[in-house]
Amino acid sequence: MGFGMGCSCLQMTFQACCITEARQLYDQLTPLCPIVMALSAASPIYRGYLADIDCRWSVIAGSVDDRTKEERGEKEISEGSKARRIYKSRYDSIDSYLSQESCRYNDIDVVIDPEIYKQLQEAGIDKLMSQHIAHLFIRDPISLFSEKINQNDEEDTDHFENIQSTNWQTMRFKPPPPNSKIGWRVEFRPTEVQLTDFENAAFTVFIVLMTRVILSFNLNFLIHISKVDENMKTAQVRDAVRQGKFYFRKDLLSGTSPQMAADCIKRCGAKCDAKKCDNDKKYNVEDEYTMMTVDEIINGKGNEFPGLVPLIDKYLDNVECDVDTRCTISQYLKLIKMRASGELMTMARWIREFVANHPSYKQNSVVNDDITYDLICKCDNISRGLEDCDELIPLYNTRSQDDLPPALTKYYNALSTNGKTNG
Questions:
Q1: Is the pLDDT assigned to residue 148 strictly greater than 60?
Q2: CA-CA 20 to 30 A from 240: which of 80, 82, 127, 218?
Q3: Do residues 134 and 113 touch, judged by C-beta distance below 8 A?
């Protein structure tokens, strides 16, 4: 907690139309977590030292790891003990997908609380969701408020949220709160916070648009959970965005993707194979993915892979998007593309170069008070728009306004008029 874990990340929550869509988004966004973390890398300094990692993830995972030696596998579990081997910290990547269509990619052991699992199964909850909830409850509560101890669990979910909110995973599946109109939600959690509003908006818009592309084209990003875990380790190493290679799915079409999705992939210049059957048991799922760089994943790889940003562009071509909004979105996507290609630095790389070029730096990994002060002042000036930083942020002009575009204003006025008429 002392590392400022709540202040070093950019977390995005999306509401789905139903539990099925929420499960789909939870699963499909999971393979994107390491890619976006590498793209947004911004944490190379800890306790006054340059580290050999660029992201916060493993540092926080260690700082809140409350497993015993038996649970970590460092000590044998004695006979009769209720202890069990737990493979990850409570702050880590997810252990399983939630949709039935995704379950064959669940290839790691999921430790569960058997009593909770049994209770959920007896209540009619399906196996994958029961497993997910029962996995959360292998952890003990680590914080408790006196006024929240005595709760009616038939009406309140505070006891559940106490466990749910202290399982800090790359994705979080969020049931509707009681007595609320809020629906099923998923939270995307790996992104590192950036210096400026523009950068943070760019990453947020990128993920929002990826959810629209996934749902509209019914795309399939799934790979084995074990490969996602390997990607998470790769994403944290120094300059992973330029030097790392990640497991990623080659063909994004699913068995239920519309023809429009295949057409968009072809227009991006890539091949597509819509004939693969997701349920063909003879098909080796390991053949579905390969190693790619972040640049190839984001910007495309010739006729082998379309690229995520080109897919977003094709999606936007197919929806009604006013010129001003498209202009702003294009500038956000330009940042993502240039970060992926290495034309723009990640914040982590920029910080490293600032420290390395500082006159007080002694080439010993120590970030002394003078360097720290100058770095904070520089960051503050960039964040407040008092100073440009061409290495981090491209030149941009926004056509966005505080008021709604005329087309949207006309649309909402028409809705309002129709509502009054129909009422």
A1: yes
A2: 218
A3: yes
